[in-house]
Amino acid sequence: MLNRLLEHASPSQGAGVYLGLLEKSERWRALAGQRGLRDVVDAILAYAQSGLGAQEAAVLRVETTTGELAGTWMLPGRVGSSLCQVRWSVGGIGGAVGRCLHAAEPVAGDADHEPLLTINGDRPEPRTDHGRFLVVPVLSALPHSSCFDGGWLHRQGCPSFESIDPEGIDVRSPLHPCASCENYPVRGALVLTDLENTGPWPPDQTHAVALGQVISSVFERAALRQRVDVVERFRLQALDAMYNGVVTTDRKGKVVFANQRAGDMTGRERGGLTGQSFETLFELPDAPDALRHALSYGRSAVHLEGFLRRPAQQEDVARVPIRLNLAPFRLEEGGHFGAVCVFEDRSSIRAMEEEIRHLDTLAAIGRFASSLAHEIRNPLGGISAGVNYLLRTSELDEEQRQHMGVIQGEIERVDEILRDLLAVARTKELDLTAVDTA
Q1: What is the mean pLDDT of residues 27-49?
Q2: Pair 105, 137: CB distance under 8 Å
Q3: How many angstroms separate the CA atoms of 222 and 33, rounded?
Q4: Which DSSP string corresponds to 365-393?
Q5: From its phi and psi, is residue 429 left (phi > 0), alpha (psi between -120 and 50) or beta?
Q6: pLDDT class for 393, splitting at 50, 70, 90?
Q7: Residue 7: what pLDDT?
Q8: Between helices 205-240 and 37-52, what is the axis angle to 10°?
Q9: What is residue 157's DSSP assignment?
Q10: pLDDT at 151 (0 to 100)
Q11: How far apart are CA 319 and CA 296, in angstroms?
């Protein structure tokens, strides 16, 4: 579109359009990458008033995900200008703005012949006393050529259009149904109005269309940044949700990233791990050269046993037992950029293993005690039988009988100890029954 307008402009005029916007557009795009879209739009609106002579200006963006037209409207005031944030459902948009979005062509006019903007037939806020206006479409930098054949979008010959069920679709809607198409070229609209109805109007369309293309590049830069931010947030949330710790290193073995679990396990803030040496965090007695092999030779190592070192002030758990996997991280085939380490806390497993070993020891002692008790009871039974025989058959005086009674009592005491020992060593079956606790 800009090329078509430049064909009718003088060479100096066309060059002036590009040179006048080149420096500003680069600054706006840089600002969009640093501070966000709203600050850039505010700067563009200020330029539209000062550079294009518009007393009122608006930058409106088509949000296809919500089906809305949203943006900022700069209103003139007695002292400076005021900004108004607007948002409308795109289905009811009419007037010059709706015609611009539908045709993807600039629309110039005045309020006496056509309203600038209507929503479901009504004039929305902000209600200003503008007379003349110019609405410029904000188009994709590389629009699909078939979208403009015949000068109108939504034509029946489009394969994407034909793939959509036409029943119940209002072809007058500015977003019907091309907004869901990846080739949809309309990103929004730039609105310029004149309140005083004095002087030449509309302003230079070449300049306005060029500004619209700058706005398109800013929109695309903001959309790209938004997609990158979404991917980055998803990556961080996914890694932070992991039960295992994850750290990555550069080619020198310095930590460049750590997830939340890694920070919790080391007793540090996650950001406090950045820049730490891998060797200061991990102790691998069985594979001390695992990181060097990963960084220098691209070798992976799995199921390495070792320890995670914690800060010196936490000596109660200064070394956490861990198991880790270590692999090289490649930016491209054949190159090694760093290493990725995934590790799990083995403290609970180590404690469980110690408990199992303790239970195994107790079980072995129980088996030994049971066997020993049986071995002792056999000769003890013989001694008891002998004492009873002597008491029945021998002529013993009273003192001797008392001594024999003492022997018999000690035999019974030892037998009772053996019965208790066998009761403890013997495995018991649990009998679960319902009881009344009242």
Answers
A1: 71
A2: yes
A3: 7
A4: HHHHHHHHHHHHHHHHHHHHHHHHHHHHH
A5: beta
A6: confident
A7: 43
A8: 170
A9: T
A10: 44
A11: 27
pLDDT digits (tens, 9 = 90+) for 53-85: 788 889 998 887 777 888 898 887 655 568 888
Name the phi and psi angles at 349, rounded to 5. Answer: -70, -40
Strand partners, 323: 305, 344
DSSP label at 158?
-
Q: What is the side-by-side order of every strand in the sheet holding 338-345?
A: 255-258, 245-249, 338-345, 319-329, 301-309, 282-283
Are 309 and 267 in contact, with CB atoms under 8 Å apart?
no
User: Could you tell me whether strands 319-329 and 338-345 are parallel, antiparallel, or unpaired per DSSP bridges?
Assistant: antiparallel
pLDDT of residue 11 exceeding 50, the answer is no
Place of tokens 């019974």: 412
Mean of per-residue pLDDT scores for the chain: 76
- Please work out, in degrees rounded to the nearest 5, the angle formed at the alpha carbon of residue 53 by the alpha carbons of 47 and 59: 50
Q: CA 240 to CA 238: how far, in whole Å?
A: 6
Q: Which of 107-111, 160-164, 299-303, 346-350 has the lowest mean pLDDT?
A: 160-164
Q: Higher pLDDT residue, 197 or 433?
A: 433
Tokens 């002529």 found at: 395
Q: How many angstroms separate the CA atoms of 90 and 67, rounded? A: 6
DSSP codes, 53-87: --SEEEEEEEETTTTEEEEEEEEE-SSSEEEEEEE
φ/ψ of 172, rounded to 5, equals -80, -15
126/191 Cα distance (integer angstroms) = 13
Instruction: Pick from 11-15, 128-132, 380-384, 390-394 the range whose average pLDDT is largest.
Output: 380-384
Contacts 24+ apart (CB under 8 A), 408-415: 408/384, 411/380, 411/383, 411/384, 411/387, 412/384, 414/376, 414/380, 415/377, 415/380, 415/384
